[in-house]
Fold this sequence. Notes:
It holds the Pfam family Lactamase_B_3. The protein is about 15% helix and about 30% strand. By secondary structure, it is α/β, with parallel strands linked by helices. It has a single domain, classed as Ribonuclease Z/Hydroxyacylglutathione hydrolase-like (Metallo-beta-lactamase, Chain A), CATH 3.60.15. The protein has an 8-stranded mixed sheet with strand order 6-7-8-9-10-11-14-12. A 6-stranded mixed sheet has the order 5-4-3-2-1-13, covered by helices on one side. The two termini are about 30 Å apart.
Amino acid sequence: MGSTTLRIALLAAGLAAGFSGQALAQGASPAQPAKPEMRENCPGLVASRSPVFRRASFDPALLQLAALAADQVRITFVGHATFLLESPQLVRIATDYNDYIRPNVLPDIITMNHAHSTHYTDRPDPRIPHVLRGWAGQERPARIDMTFKDVRVRNVPTNIRTWGGGETERHGNSIFIFEIANLCIAHLGHLHHTLTQAQLDEMGRVDVVMVPVDGSYTLDLDGMIEVLHALKAPLLIPMHYFSGHSLDRFLTRMRQEWEIEVLEIPSTVISKTTLPIKPKILVMPGR
């Protein structure tokens, strides 16, 4: 594939997206056993060669949409905790969809968590076909497992701290798992505690993790690193870091064990065969 074609693919994705504590006691309901097909679709680290992260400079002349191959997923960081995921059949998913940061394209699927107003909205665009709320109330967790075209979306409920930080709200957050093009992508949402073995088992082996790294509003840095060690994903994408200081603090700690790559634009195309052999942190510009 020529360099111009690669630039077209990533430029189109970027334009479409708009460029626009301590661990808590779980107390959650026992997780349901993972489905056998999830185990097959999320086999974990099977890469055999180094990744190729494709990037492009901004060039208004290249206003074309390049199709994805059958084994590819396009990931664009819109900002905060919102990513736009695009499947080979052009299913578009926006994570932690809210009133402040949104992609400029209409998603087919949105996921939300209600820890803070920047992670959900009560007023989603009525044209969005699939609105997935990652909470249902303290008496019962949200349970989501849906398939749309070539995408499967499921969730693993977790607890959150209340706004004042003094109490635990059961089932207030969801880790959303996206199974696309033989990849298993996990968005940790507004995670406030380390994960139980039951939750890890329900997630299965994941290939890509979108991880909040602020170290205060979500899980503290030590706890988050513990979660990442437990997940053993080959590719980590930081989010929810507010400032360069909090991102740098996370990267300084992680640089001791993980390779770090910084992209020039907030978009990349990945596949199972381009996953890194050694775990890598992929930093996209955003906030």
